[in-house]
Amino acid sequence: MKSYIEAIQANCNLTFQEMEGAAGLLFDERTNENEIAKFLTSLAIKGETADEVAALAAVMSANAVRPGFPEDTYIDNCGTGGDGSNSFNISTASAFVMAASGVRVAKHGNRKISSAAGSHDVLEELGIRNDLTRSETAAMMELTGISFLFAPNVHPKMKRIGEIRRRIGSPTIFNLVGPLTNPVPLHAQYTGINRKDFVMEYASVLTILDRKRAVVVAGAGGPDEATLAGRNTLVLADCGDLIPFTLTAEDVGLKPASLEAIKGGDAVRNASIIRSIMDGERSPKFDTVVFNAGIGLFTDGIVKTVHEGVRLAEDSILSGRAKRKLEEVTAFSAQCSNKVVTS
């Protein structure tokens, strides 16, 4: 590991093959934890490249536990996190809206690492378990059209890395890699990053990882979600073609709002926000969810434009379908036995 650290600290980028070798050491129990922390922080200081991200994602995916979903078209809308915006769990709320709009959502996520509430912290507060068996996870997808994949369950080798990340307390390459390691074979992916300069490279990584269609967004003002606060930077990856574009709230018939308007809190607070959105309470938080759900629906291909997607997302909430979807998932979760996911 020392040679990789020295190369990175000398501002040298690792090749795909070198990063595969480094990744093997990251997951080796014999590797010193302080060296792992130094490697991750040094890499973050240098700035990760597409090859480094793709190689680590490939190694993690190869070691992931598969949930055994039947062959179908699935989309994930997990973002990288680590943006420091303290927003509520936008992608989690959007996932229910997308599922209620007719797409099959395999939502990958984790507990909080560098935020007040990660996706599975708020899901737990909503009454959705993260200890379902593989068969229960698959049954949730079959019955409701949405399922949640808890990263520690599908990536058991990440336990020690997770503890090291918590000690570091700031974003690392694992924030970038997280959304890329969903063990479900995805046909589409909508994801956000908090690095405007990396959007095109991240879209390239998704193409390398065989996503037929994907959209990457860097939100206006810095979040890893599309926001109402200005012009959002996006890239559409469509069968290998990379198409950059931008979007504002006004472009899709929504009102602009500041980042302060989408602030969240802990899991209890964020669950309350999500419930109010599902009840149809109009606010910048509601508009932010339909904005992101609309982009997700466009990414999936169920609609031809983001504007169409936003209208469909609004209807999914105001008709009560999104709230019923949340209730279906919560009811299913309550019926499941208390078992830890196994391979």
From TrEMBL:
Binds 2 magnesium ions per monomer. InterPro entries: Anthranilate_Pribosyl_Tfrase, Glycosyl_Trfase_fam3, Glycosyl_Trfase_fam3_N_dom, Glycosyl_Trfase_fam3_N_dom_sf, Nuc_phospho_transferase. Keywords: Amino-acid biosynthesis, Aromatic amino acid biosynthesis, Glycosyltransferase, Magnesium, Metal-binding, Transferase, Tryptophan biosynthesis. It holds the Pfam family Glycos_transf_3. 5-phospho-alpha-D-ribose 1-diphosphate binds at residues 79, 82-83, 87, 89-92, 107-115, 119. Belongs to the anthranilate phosphoribosyltransferase family. This is Anthranilate phosphoribosyltransferase. It comes from Sporosarcina gallistercoris.
